[in-house]
Amino acid sequence: MKIISGTGHRALAERIAAAAGVELCEVDITRFPDGEIFVKIVDNVRGDDLFIVQSVSIEPNNYLMELLIMIDAAKRASADRITAVLPYYGYARQDRKDQPRVPITAKLVATLLEAAGADRVLCCDLHAQQIQGFFDVPVDHLYASPVIVKYLRSYNLDDLVVVSPDAGGLKMADAYSKLLGAGIALVGKQRKSAEDVEANHLVGDVKGRNTLLVDDMTSTAGTLTAAAKLLEKAGAKSIRAAVSHSLLTQKGIDRLINSSIDELVTTDTVPQREWDDFNVTVLSVAGILAEAICRIHNDQSVSSLFRVDK
């Protein structure tokens, strides 16, 4: 078993390798003057079970192309099996054709990964479950919830209500509510643009209760802050938010600072900036990903990783 990393999130790859008890293989990744990417796997990987770690975030076009080239280099270096490890799957929000003449880019990414030579895929908290069906190779889909729930339980919050900020996240909210032994509520929203959201309806009782907004990702924080405003108006005692992937823009950061959200709990699936102006807790998914990698290598079940220890 060997692990290599792209430049998308090397810090996470190093944590994964350490947790798996191996060292990262050496890879030279450089750019030609015109921007073309050059990859050379320095260590010998012939006949190895190779795991390539790359978060396709922040600069998704750059890091996706880098991942495809690394997979091709590994294939031509005669690696026995190549697993693409994507802590964050870029383009996952474009998972369906919801208007005329638009692509299903999440499917295109799946096709590209397979064409490059990936034998299987390991990912965390896909934006839509059906993306697994876009692949004709095995997909191991992990969740950040065991890490996030373990942290939230340390608060021992009474009268907790898990809130889905939109209808699409209701299944995730239901899963969190069961794990935390909490109630559940739903916010109805209307998206005005890619960055602006209006929350108009709240289903559920949150008055005088601690609330937790859960979502798989946030970038401009429009959905979270609009929902938080509605919860505050409904008399919520406290408001926290938990998201698996935090891709916050400056606009999103400003919105959180000016919102009624007390804390944002997220993970290190994507690189995180230094937070001095808002209460953010970043939890690591390196342990879960490392355990999954070891189990895949040893042909063991990964289903036990979905359990949340009491």
TrEMBL record:
Gene3D superfamilies in the record: 3.40.50.2020
A single MF term (Gene Ontology): ATP binding
Gene Ontology CC terms, in alphabetical order: cytoplasm; ribose phosphate diphosphokinase complex
First-listed, main subcellular location of the protein, grouped into a coarse class: cytoplasm
Keyword line: ATP-binding, Cytoplasm, Kinase, Magnesium, Metal-binding, Nucleotide biosynthesis, Nucleotide-binding, Transferase
Residue sites binding D-ribose 5-phosphate per the record: 191, 215
Similarity remark: Belongs to the ribose-phosphate pyrophosphokinase family. Class I subfamily.
HAMAP family to which the protein is assigned, alphabetical: RibP_PPkinase_B
Subunit text: Homohexamer.
Name of the protein described by the UniProt record: Ribose-phosphate pyrophosphokinase
